[in-house]
Each structure stands twice: as C-alpha cells, then as structure tokens.
Prior knowledge:
Elements: H1 2-10, H2 17-49, H3 52-55, E1 59-61, E2 64-66, H4 68-74, H5 76-87, H6 92-109, H7 113-131, H8 138-178, H9 180-196, H10 201-207, H11 212-232, H12 234-248, H13 254-259, H14 265-281, H15 301-311, H16 315-319, H17 329-356
Antiparallel strand pairs: 1-2
Helix pairs in contact: 2-4, 2-5, 2-10, 2-15, 5-6, 5-7, 6-7, 6-8, 7-8, 7-10, 8-9, 8-11, 9-10, 9-11, 9-14, 11-12, 11-14, 11-17, 14-17
Amino acid sequence: MSKLKTFLKRKDIEVSLKRYGIDALGAMAQGLFCTLLVGTILDTLGTQLGIGFLTKALFEINGVGYTIGKFASAMVGPAMAVAIGYALSAPPMVLFSLIPVGYATNVMGGAGGPLAVYVVAIIAAEFGKAVSKETKIDILVTPIVTVIIGVGVAYFVASPIGKGALAVGDLIKWATTQQPFVMGVLVSVIVGVALTLPISSAAICAALSLTGLAGGAALAGCCANMVGFAVISFRENGWGGVVSQGLGTSMLQMGNIVRNPKIWIPAIAASAVTGPLATCLFKLEMNGAAVSSGMGTCGLVGPIGVWTGWANPSAEAVLDGAAAIVPTAGDWLGLALIAVVLPALLAWVFGIVCRKLGWIKDGDLKLN
C-alpha cells in the first residue's frame, strides 16, 4: 500500500473532492465556454446583425456546412477533455491524447455528453499520467494507453451516463413546468449557491442540459448571488467590488462566507424570490446553450444566453420543443428585472435587515 501511495504521489494522482469536484469541474466549464458558448454567441451575432463572415459556411464536412460558430461548438468535446486534463496537471503527451477521447465521448454521450466527458476524461487522464515516462518508448505508450483507455471506457459508459444526465435534467425541467413556484425556488437557490461555492454551476447546468423554465430559474439564482453580493458589499468594496463580483464571480466572497455564513442570507433570500418570479410571472426561459444557465451575469453570459435562445435556440432546447421567437418588450423587461434590477433591490433590502439584526457587520464583506 505504501508503494502505491508513493507511486500516486510521484505521478501527481490525487483522488480528492477538490481535485475532481472543484478543479476538474471548473476547468470543464471553461472548455464549454470557449467552444459551445462562444460558438453559439457568434452564430447569433452573425444572424441577428447580418455579419456575413459569421453566417457564411466556410467549409463542409460530410456535406454539412460549418460557420465559425458552428465549428467552435463542434469542438466542445475535445475542449472539455483537454481542460480537465490541464486541471489534473496532465503532461503534454497525455493532454494532447485527450483530444480524440473528448470528441468520441461527447458524440457517444449524446445530449448528456458533457457529464460523460467529465467522467471519461478524468479516467483517461489519470491512466495516461500513470504510464507517462515509465518506458523508453513513451512517445507511443502514453498516447496509446490514454486513447485506448479513454475511448474504450467511453464505448461502455458514455451513452448510459449521457442518458442518465439527460433523464435527471428532463425530470428537473418537467417538475419545473408542473410546479413552477416550488421548483423555481429550489432550482434558483441550489444553482445560485453552487455558483458561489468553489464548484462550477455552469458545468452542472451543462451536464444536466438545463434549459427552458428550469434554465431561467437557474439564471435567476446565479444573478441573485452575483448582483446581490455586489450590491450589499458596496460600502466595503465600492465600484471595484461591483465589477469584480457583478461581472466576475461571487465566489470571491467564499473566504468571508466561511468566517461568517450569515453574509450569504441576502443573496440566497433574493434568489428564493426571483426564481419563482422568473418561472411563474415572467415565464423566463433559457433556451440558449445550457451552460449559460449557470453563468449568471459573469461577462453578461447569462442574459446573452437568453437572447441567443430567443433568436437561435440550442440543440438541447429544440429537443424540448423550443423555437425561435421575436422577443416582446415584456420579454426584455422580464430579463432585465430578473437578471439585474430585482436581485439588486432585494439583496439591498435583505442586507439592511441583516445589518440591523447584527448578522452582518462592517467589514464582513470586505474583499482582500
């Protein structure tokens, strides 16, 4: 056993919640962002603004024309796998070998591909790391082992994992349509909390293909946390804090939350209100890329995702019956209220109450 521990330490193979549940998951979301999300945004901008070089098919593969955005989206599997490998400190030969592993896994995983890639890429990367530089023919052994293990495991588990993730996502979406108030609260609060924790709410939403009303509730929760913390910490952090938290991430407050969990109350309470308002009153649907549901106001990706869903629904949303629409003034108003205005007002009010009760004191929300 001691020899195994020594070997794993030498290979930097660490089986831990932080390594797999935080580092790998967060990196996966970045891979999603740089391909699927960016590709969707480029296609939408090209279509809506009439930008020729964004709407023109630059080449064909098996008779299918690809725009810049469509090709970027098609690379989501390799990007996720490489990002995960990077987070696991995979050496170059392993990292590059994850490209075909990610592509094959995402294809075999279907609509639930992101979760399948997450699982398979971790397994392939760790096996690749284990054999890396252990032989004199490393240039052959490492990529062969990584690809065979990765694609081989994917062949058996990618489809079941993908279908399982899709089933869970479908259940959440179905429950949200049946019980929009209750599920609006639950989805908004849970995904909003995930956004602020050092895990990836974006990856979770992508893995579950969370679109439609459930995606709208998730967006509400994420915005409530980001905008909420930006507003209630204004006296400590000023406009710099508004930008870093409101357009960056509320995760910056995790250190302060550990010291005083009560500072989270205004943001969570705001999400519990805006979630059901999104589902019951405004019928706000996130029909863009599912990853957008878990991004909130980070770079305004969440609101942009709603817009792209109106103009160019994602494949996941289309499967659920979504279609392109021309947004009304009411749609734009609902988006503005749920994403920015209500989270700011509600968190500000709840923050005042918490300060008066002594739950939040001056300096509790100060960012280092």
